[in-house]
Each structure stands twice: as C-alpha cells, then as structure tokens.
UniProtKB/TrEMBL annotation:
Encoding gene per record: otsB
Top-level lineage group: Bacteria
Organism: Novilysobacter selenitireducens
Keywords: Hydrolase, Magnesium, Metal-binding
Catalytic activity: alpha,alpha-trehalose 6-phosphate + H2O = alpha,alpha-trehalose + phosphate
Signal peptide feature range: none
Group of enzyme by EC: hydrolase
Protein name as it appears in the record: Trehalose 6-phosphate phosphatase
Pfam families: Trehalose_PPase (PF02358)
GO terms of molecular function: trehalose-phosphatase activity
Cofactors required: Mg(2+)
C-alpha cells in the first residue's frame, strides 16, 4: 500500500447513500480533552449520526480504541454498530477474557504513578489498559517505563502508542480487521466503504477500505498516511456530517 506524504488532501467526494461509513471517535468526531471522561459530545453531531445511520440502512459504525461500553455511554441515546478496543471487541461476541494478573499489577503501579503526577490518567478498559499523560506531560517517562517493563510479563500483549497515551492490549486485532469483518456482513456488505480517522491505528482502517475500492479520509495533517482525502479537524468532520444529514 502506497502511504505517502500528501500535504494537501482534497475533501471527501459528495456523500452517497451507497456508502458504508466507518468513523473513528477521539480526534475525529470528538476534540481531544485532558482526560478520557472530559470529552464533549456535540448534540448536533449526534442527531446527524442518527439521521445518517438510518439513511445508510444501518451501515454506519464507530471503530474506536474505546470499549463498547464507553462508546454507548458517550453516544447515548444512540447505540450504533461499533467495534471497540481497536478492533478487539464486537457486538454480540462473548465477554472479553479476564485481564491477566500482570495487567492488574500494572494497573495498581500506574495508579501510584498517576497520584504522583496529577492530571495523568490510568484508563482501565478490561482486556486493555491505557496510560495517559495529556493532562500532565511530566508523567510520560514514568508511564512509558512501567508499560515497557510490564510487557515482558504479558505474552500475547503488545504496546500500542497513541496520542499522549500508551496502551497495553492483546495482539492480533486491529481496526482494519474489524472493518473487513463488518464488510462481510449486512448491512455493510456490498457498499462503498469509507473510513474517517486521525491516528496511526486508523491507518489499518484506511488500508482495509482502500483494498475494497473505498475512500480513506485523514483528519488533521499527520504524515505519512494512506488516506487520499482529508478534513482539517474534528470540527470540520462534524460540520461535514451535519451538512450531509440535511434533507
Ligand atoms: O480510536 P479512538 O476512538 O481515536 O480512541 C483512541 C483513544 O482515545 C482516547 O484517548 C484519547 O482521547 C482522550 C480524550 O480526548 C485524550 O485525553 C487522550 O490523550 C487521547 O489519547 C481514549 O481514552 C482511549 O481509550 C482510546 O484508545
């Protein structure tokens, strides 16, 4: 896949009712906040998502690093199709495996570090754990050191870098595999897939939709990227959705 520096990406083509729309959440639909629970969910965007979900006959999904539980809480009263934990969690699958003991040990140690660095956050998502330092960048070295030491005791786990965060999560699943899985099923199958995302983990989603003849839309200016279309910011994504939802 040719992933290049493309500084000036054109906006996505006009919205089409034959799309299957896959949307990343943080940094795409939502502006970043100092901590995961401090994000604001724009009510106009929620209404637009509801309209577009129905207009696409259900083929609109959230594809996020957050858990399904978090997504349903944030996007309530909507309960959209979704893949959580970077593709690890799918609706209808059984409960995720219990977190291994070293992950629970790490959680305790990371909470101690966070207490020493007010603003740092330990986000426990069950099978995965995210160590955040956006609210206190001084916590980054200690959080990194903890995560890097813990990974040696976590066979089957990998370190997932993100935006001011390092996550420990089971290997294997990614957003591209989640998109491919949904594209095999109704109501997504047979539609033109479109993935909108901002982060490194979204590149897997971009590759999956491009492999199906679809459209990849990068939010922001991270480079290099496989995306061939772009929107400048989450605010621009929200305006784009609200406009597309007009009758
Ligand atoms: O795949 P995404 O939907 O983009 O989720 C990626 C991670 O997003 C969240 O963390 C990020 O957003 C927080 C709120 O703005 C911010 O405080 C943090 O610095 C960002 O990394 C979420 O908390 C994670 O669980 C997701 O994996």
């Amino acid at each position: 896949m040719a992933c290049m520096r493309r500084p000036d990406l054109p906006p996505p083509p006009p919205f089409s009712d034959d799309w299957a729309l896959f949307l990343d959440v943080d940094g795409t639909l939502l502006d970043f906040a100092d901590a995961p629970h401090r994000v604001h969910v724009d009510p106009d965007m929620l209404e637009a998502l509801d309209v577009l979900h129905r207009r696409l006959d259900g083929a609109l999904a959230l594809v996020s690093g957050r858990s399904l539980e978090q997504l349903d809480h944030l996007f309530a009263p909507l309960r959209l199709p979704a893949a959580g934990l970077h593709g690890l969690e799918h609706r209808g699958d059984g409960p995720a495996a219990k977190p291994p003991t070293p992950l629970r040990t790490l959680r305790g140690e990371a909470r101690t570090v966070a207490l020493r660095h007010p603003g740092a956050v330990v986000e426990d998502k069950g099978a995965t754990i995210a160590l955040h330092w956006r609210g206190n960048p001084d916590a980054e070295p200690a959080m990194r050191a903890l995560a890097e030491a813990a990974i040696a005791w976590l066979p089957g786990y990998s370190l997932q870098p993100g935006d001011h965060v390092l996550e420990l999560r089971p290997k294997g699943a990614n957003k591209g595999a989640a998109v491919a899985r949904m594209l095999d099923e109704a109501p997504f199958a047979g539609r033109t897939p479109v993935f909108v995302g901002d982060d490194h983990t979204d590149e897997h989603g971009f590759e999956a939709v491009l492999a199906h003849g679809g459209i990849a839309v990068l939010v922001g200016d991270r480079q290099p990227s496989c995306a061939r279309h772009g929107l400048a910011s989450p605010a621009e994504v929200r305006s784009w959705l609200v406009e597309a939802a007009q009758p």
